[in-house]
## 1
Amino acid sequence: MEGRDPTMKITKPEELQQHPEYKEVLVELLFQLADDDFILSYRGSEWLGLAPHIEEDIAFSSINQDTMGHAAMYYQLLEDIGIGKADDLAHQRPSSERRNAVLLEEVNGPGHYLSEPRYDWAFAVVRHYFYTQAKKVRIDSLKHSSYEPLAQVAVKINMELYYHLMHWRTWFIQLTNAQGEARERMKKAVAKVFEDFGGVLTLGVKGDRMVEFGLIESEKILKQRWVQAMKPVFAEVNLDLPSEFGMKRGNGRNGEHTADLDEAIMTLSEVYRLDPLATW
Amino acid sequence: MPVVTSFRWLSEEEKYERFMERINAGEKIEADDWMPEDYRMTLIKLIAMHGISEIMGALPEKEWVPKAPSLRRKLGIMAKVQDEMGHGQLLLRVAEDLMAPLGKTREEIMQDLFKGDLKFHNVFHMPAPTWADAGLIGWLVDGAAIITQTNMLDASYGPYARALKRICAEEVFHAQHGESIILALAEGTKEQKEMLQDALNRWWEALLMFFGPGSAATTGTSKQDITIKYRIRTKTNEQLRQDFFTKYVPRILSIGLKLPDETMHFDESKGKWVYKQPDWNRFKEIIRNNGPKSKERLRLRELSYHNNAWVREALSGQSAAV
Ligand SMILES: [Fe+2]
Ligand SMILES: [Fe+2]
């Protein structure tokens, strides 16, 4: 294993030319970050107009915009490295090239956003809350990334995360602590999210190299921090926090995905694909 | 102080007289002030319809939010639709305050919408089958809304006037957002230009209808007389439509689009645009929820309302326990 100077910092994309291995691993990490936010924001945007009340529609939409903005910043970092144009990276890549966690691509519930949507608000709350906490842990680590342009983006994103986290935590506690149907629905959603939550917390096959290059801390440390943050909340809602999380439907970091992602890509790129070279 | 105390002892006619004096003096009426029943009812109807139209109006554009063709457009249209929901919320609050003395709440507004008793704007019953429709809505529907809302900025009802002021400021950004989409298409490929012209052709009649019939004789009813009497608005429907033409016809032509109405021209001697009347019978049908997309969009609203019933129930249970 090639030793690394722990104080090494890369300050500009151009410097990556001298570090091809570093660059390869960095690109992998950036795709994970970009694709996660992009697809979850897309799923969120399908909810528009369908949230439990108008006030929530507005708040949720604001969070989705922030999240789409975060994806755009990561795709821009990839563009700056010379991987391709941000819009092409977001709209053109097939599912086999996507690196998002499978949990985040899953449909919101039965139906289509334009026809007979019977979306599951419990699933939305749990998925967004658990993911946002994982994102917070990741962003805190990325603030010290050896790739400085990424560290700078992490600082910016972090400022918006506080509000997102508070929003979803409030929903989670309120609905899970409610009695009757709400609690049952929330418990079901928690079980469903845990089946695939391992896919959110993993850094994929190149994870060890990411750590070695000082891009981010290890999967193990990040997972521990997530558990630490969630423990008091689980106590408050009187639920057990499992020690292991599944990857039931595959590891998205390795390009394993479900038909839900293919369908989402077709929809989100419908206009773009009419003419990818045109200015829209 | 003695004036305030004695107001309670005035007869209804005297109260009405005082009220009209205030209206004619250009004073603002506030939520807790005395107001005649028809003033209150007209406002409730107008503002609830406006509010619900903002919310239903989010639906045709919402169709294009997940599909917007670039990251920038995705962000732009998300923000725009979110604003519209925000307008809806703001206006429903104003309507709720007016309804409170009648013992009614937002729940009734939603139920009236589902029952078909509360109408929403004709434009939002129309299909938006292409990306160009999403741009055109921002450019011309919001453009038309700016014209009608500006007309009520000085409305005698203070809470409505203040809400409109905030809304109009945001509408200007919406029109710019729409214009930016439209300009990209107008300067784009042959297919993009065609898509844009098709959208304009599709929306033209609905845009003319947006301002409402020229007089009560056209459709049998018109709120415009009473709203002018109470100084809620100043210009008539036809004046507003003419303002729209004056502002937008030159812009439509300047970006290389053709007017969908070949007979349209400006009559210099009368100082008026001459145009082909939309089919006002069709207008009546559309606002009775018999437009091309009325049922489908109401269904979306209603379905999400029922689908989330358990959430509202959980929230209300909690507040009752506190
Ligand atoms: Fe609006
Ligand atoms: Fe608008």
## 2
Amino acid sequence: MTDKKTITIALAGNPNSGKTTIFNNITGSRQKIGNWPGVTVEKKEGLISKFGYDLKIVDLPGTYSLTPYSIEEIVARNFVLEESPDVVIDIIDSSNLERSLYLATQLREIDGKVLFVLNMADVARSHGTKIDAEKLSSLLDVPVIFTVGNKNEGMDDLLKEAIKLAESSPVKKEKRNVKYSKDIESAIVRIGDLIEDKVKDNIHYNFRWTAIKLLEDDKIVKERFALKAGNAGSDIIDEVQSLRKNLLNLYDEDTEIIMTDDRYGFISGIIKEVQTISPKRRVDISRNIDLVLTNKFIGFPIFIFFIWAMFQLTFTVGAYPMDLIDNGVNLLSSGFERFLPESIFKDLLVNGIIAGVGSVIIFLPNILILFFCIALFEDTGYMARAAFLMDKIMHLIGLHGKSFIPMLMGFGCNVPAIMAARTLESEKDRILTILITPFMSCSAKLPVYIVLAGTFFAAKAGNVIFSLYLLGIILSIISGRLFRLTLLKGADAPFVMELPPYRVPMLKSLTIHMWDRSKMFLKKMGKIILVGSIIVWFLSSFPRNINYSEDYTSILNNINESFKEKFISADENEKILLNEQKLAAIAGIENKMNSEKIEKSFMGKIGKGLSPVFKPLGIDWRGSVSLLTGVFAKEIVVSTLGVLYSTEKSNDKAALANALRSSGMTPLSALSMMVFVLLYLPCLATITTIKKETGSFKWTFFSITYSTVIAWMMSFCLYQGGKLLGFA
Amino acid sequence: MLLSEMKEGEKGIIVRIAGSGALRRRILEMGMVKGSQIYIEKYAPLKDPLELIVKNYHISLRVEEASQITVEKSE
Ligand SMILES: Nc1nc2c(ncn2[C@@H]2O[C@H](COP(=O)(O)OP(=O)(O)OP(=O)(O)O)[C@@H](O)[C@H]2O)c(=O)[nH]1
Ligand SMILES: [Mg+2]
């Protein structure tokens, strides 16, 4: 192993050109792919051994140029410039060659070794575009190969070529450089010479490249240059400034603009030589689809229909497998109940673990369906259109169209959603989006709604849940507006977004996505929910010896005695009836005893401590405790309820519903609790992500406090208002 | 005329991009440079933003940003 050489290969390129698809193909990983620009927001690494080398492959976020615009683009640029990978592979969308060459020419200007990969060769072909790869390669002196990422074609060629390139001795790419306008060219030469003369030893990039970047007034390069080059450097920067001034006078235009023009001029020359488009008219299916989906009249109705259908599928279709799993859980529970000897271990297993985990695991199908629908939006390309449709509305309320993407993803899980906010160019837009995303009800809250709404609103459960989602959306909008006017003043950033063509989603990618989601969910069950259930069980089962308010044992004995007497004088039919009465009487007392036991347990004490806070919301101590435990993961709210109410000797959905109903919870207090769950502080994982993404304790703390205060106020108004109006 | 004044289905050539700062630069870097052909594919249902085809790909801009771009209409 050790004698093998490690080669670092970076995958760079425009957004949505298929970098992650290729990364996954090569490394066998399962990073997220989606058909909209900005899916990857962090760099990802993968190690493989192939062709006798250890290869470190790095997938980067997409970027249109080496002058970055948003944070995920900075990640890409910094990696390419600072970590000096052995080879940079530029993944190019062949059907979009001209624009892709802009970044490609910039990558070629830096010193490293660059390989061009013409991906999506299939799309280019179907558009009737032919690219002469050999010509392109010889014109720019860069190896060029074709791939089709989603069909896994050309991956070995790509690796072989990259290795060959890494092993080749560095050559100067003298062939065809971008020729800038005459006066700019001489300014570049002048600055390049100055750098070479004065600060040669401090600067490790290509001098010409550094000169170009300084002339373009690239902030980051300028800062670094000033830092490294010292005093001599600031003289050079002064010189650059005066040259830029002269050029501005000369062209009546900023230098970087002229340079961009020049690059595109250079590119269009190359395009003429290497690309031919057959003039035959073709039906552009994607365009036709879009004419319908973003149509003036039916665009919005269709959009609303899709969202509606997503939830409809989640709840109705999800209900079938849910019943199956529910039956399985019951079978398990009653099996253990019957065959295990009475012991504290059995109590833990049946009333702690199975009651807790079982009450959540039945929601796996719903959650999977929801994620499937979101993945479908992402993979087909509809996500970008959703942002396009919604931008005007979002803009009116002071948000950005692109904020809509994280918000929609938030219905699945807030963690990736908050990270997706990175594609927003303006820091204020981004923080704003991070602050309001937690109001988008995530899939982990779904079990809570289904249990509570299902129990207390029966037929109207669907509408109740829908209203909750709506309330979340409305509050996120109002909060967004409020923050925009107060904490994060200023206009939102411009909306410039590429709209990729619609693509048929890759079945493989969808199934992998589902599979990974299930694994994540089950892992969560096995870890945090399991541990949570055990702790809740422990806290609610101890202390064991309790001073009961009544002597339940003797009450039970009395019942037994009295029925015994009645039995003696009864005939066969009466006996059956009496037996039923007896069992009911016993169950009633046992329930009462169990309730008192839990009430006097540690958990009960904690709950009682919380009750001043939650009582005005109509939430009893059991609800309060489950809300508290829900901070670890929202599903735990249900599993805690499951454990706390598992006083009846059965664990199925119906039992929990019965227990909830008989505990004195009313539809109004259930609603109040659901509203609280919808709005109160996000789960631990989300809080951590907020901290990471905002980089500020202040914002994290603000987000937690704000959401909890809003939750309390909303629930308070709802519950007290409801009571005043006479709903119980 | 301004890009924002063009109607659906019209074609033009970019003459000038006004404005300043990062946005202008990004627009240029995405290929909307002087002399580029553009085609107005459509306006969103609420008349904002609009979708253009430049260099064979689709891009959307707000009307506000489009009004920074001067074009010459062509047939
Ligand atoms: N037709 C076709 N589609 C492809 C090809 N390669 C990738 N795709 C699709 O293109 C879309 C974008 O792929 P990604 O791998 O997510 O692109 P990316 O470059 O990582 O995108 P960002 O992370 O957003 O920069 C996905 O829908 C892929 O299925 C290809 O060769 N042909
Ligand atoms: Mg990616």
